[in-house]
Specification:
The protein is built from 1 helix and 12 strands. By secondary structure, the protein is mainly beta. The structure holds thymidine-5'-diphosphate. The site of thymidine-5'-diphosphate has 6 residues, from strand 4 and strand 5.
Length: about 140
């Protein structure tokens, strides 16, 4: 939980291009620093909505704008940064102990998430004051 927002980096992914389009391949422990246990995706997000609003204790994620664009607000309790994702050949690595909110979704945006663990509600920190307490003890 000692992580900070600067540990969350945008990773360039490969892109194989030909006249029929592009393909990007992501393999656990090869292109990203974890094994992929779960994939989920957000779509049909109404205009003006935001998602996230939580942190994870152990989960690592790679967040990709598979289509369209959106912003990811990252917060380690001291520093904040906003990353705009708008290309399917880049992914944002989000490490444990980071509060995140996803917002400013473009029309038709698809947010693809590759996750290091199966779904466990116990891994979530959904209350911001609890997050601050775990990070800083106050
Ligand atoms: P949540 O992670 O809170 O969504 P977001 O951060 O995008 O706003 O999940 C929304 C709901 O979906 C919540 O009831 C838990 C459920 N859920 C699963 O059952 N399995 C999963 O793998 C995920 C990501 C969510």
């Amino acid at each position: 939980m000692q992580s900070n927002v600067y540990d969350c980096v945008v990773l360039p992914l490969n892109k194989i291009h030909n006249r029929a389009g592009n393909i990007t391949i992501v393999e656990g422990q090869i292109n990203i620093p974890f094994d992929i246990q779960r994939i989920y995706y957000l779509y049909d997000i109404p205009g003006g909505e935001s998602r996230g609003g939580h942190a994870h204790k152990a989960l690592k994620q790679l967040i990709i704008a598979a289509s369209g664009s959106f912003d990811v607000l990252l917060d380690d309790s001291i520093n904040k940064k906003v990353v705009t994702l708008n290309r399917p050949d880049y992914g944002l690595l989000v490490v444990p102990g980071i509060w995140r909110e996803l917002m400013e979704f473009s029309s038709g945006a698809v947010c693809l998430v590759l996750a290091s663990e199966k779904y466990e509600e116990e891994d979530y920190i959904r209350d911001y004051h609890t997050f601050l307490f775990i990070k800083n003890g106050n």
